[in-house]
Amino acid sequence: MKTKGAILRNPGEKWQIEEFDLGDPVAGEVQVKLVSSGLCHSDHHLRTGDSPAPMPVLGGHEGAGIVHKVGPGVTNFKEGDHVVTAFIPACGVCEPCSRGDQNICDEGARLLTGLSIADDTHRAHTSDGLGLAQMCLLGTFAPYITVNQASLIKIEDDIPLQQAALLGCGVATGWGSAVEIGGTHAGDVVVVVGIGGVGINAVQGAAQAGARIVAAVDPVPFKRQMAEKLGATHTFESMEEALPVIGEISWGKMANTTILTVGEIDGSMIQPALSLTGKGGQVVVVGMGNFASMDAQMNLFELTLLQKRVQGGIFGGASPRTQVPNLLQEYRAGKLNLSDLVTNTYRLDQINEAYDDMLAGNNIRGMIVYGDDDY
User: What are phi and psi of 193, to 5 degrees?
Assistant: First the structure.
């Protein structure tokens, strides 16, 4: 079928809305008619060149929609099912999946290749015949996607699909960074640095896990206000401003966990985060940096003698097929706020404006909403 999407031909350029050819699902694949797509900072890393990807690339990795077609051998999905995309595929049979670590499934090695899991070919092609890579094997900046069933999670029909898209990346990653990989317990002190589509959900997760103090750090006043609305007990403009106050209100113990959810991370942020963190605590690094960056400044004396940890985290350290249903239960119970996460919605052809708004700090999360004229 012919459809349209936001395509990046070269790093440094703007997203271009182009018509492209989308193939039907082959064995193990599903075609989905999307309702919405979140606008994550990770896709902007394609534009800056910080994240390597074959070009041209169809952006987007946070979406929800309705199954349109199923390929041969697909038994877990049928036409009409409601689904959320997972930016980490979960094959269910590799070693990490078998031990319950679906968020580091071996198929994740394909994420930046753009080649389908089923047959190592492109399922999408540009109008001039080039193979079109799909961001995270998804490409949700298009109203239709053809993806492997390992990249989809079925959800119940009562969940609003537009909001459900956020579960595919921002909500699961943020919540899990505090609750799963962060291991927040009742009475803990948690600091979240960077209040965007991921950080705001780290705030929600830490608050619901019973943290005594949830400190949100962001230079944008609007984002600090949203953090307070969704569970933060304290807010600060910078880690430097937060340091003496965290020391005082924790009686010198500092944070159990500091979570770095900034949109663009660099090595200079690690030591300030470690300084905010107490003995035996951890810094969870969630934000993405340049793929070639090798520098991380930290005091090794402090790291060793105070037994601190620096921990990476993807998809919140949780398995997509368990985390998304669990989060939906939190939503039903009124413990997870989805409705306030989207600041502004956009049409597909407004995608560059939307990313300008993100960079200006105007959005917690921007979202593309597809209309009848997109299909």
Answer: -110, 110
Tokens of 43: 């896709």
Name 277's bridge partners: 255
Task: Tell me the three-class secondary structure of 297-310, residue by residue.
Answer: CCCHHHHHHCCCEE
pLDDT digits (tens, 9 = 90+) for 111-134: 878 899 999 999 999 999 999 999
Check: pTM over 0.85? Answer yes or no: yes
pLDDT, one tens digit per residue, over 281-301 is 999 999 988 888 888 999 999
Q: How far is CA 265 from CA 42, 50, 197, 268, 291, in A?
A: 12, 11, 15, 8, 11
Write down the residue that tokens 């051998």 correspond to: 73
Both tokens assigned to 115 = 């080649």
Whole-angstrom Cα distance, residue 196 to residue 363?
A: 7
SS3 content of the chain, % helix, strand, coil (to 5): 30, 25, 40
What is the torsion angle, in degrees rounded to the nearest 10, for the CA atoms of residue 113, residue 350, residue 346 and residue 17? -40
Please report the DSSP string for 317-367 in residue order. Answer: GS-HHHHHHHHHHHHHTT-S--TTTEEEEE-GGGHHHHHHHHHTT--SEEE
pLDDT band at 135 (very low <50, low <70, confident <90, very high): very high
Question: Which pair of structure tokens corresponds to residue 9?
Answer: 């031909």
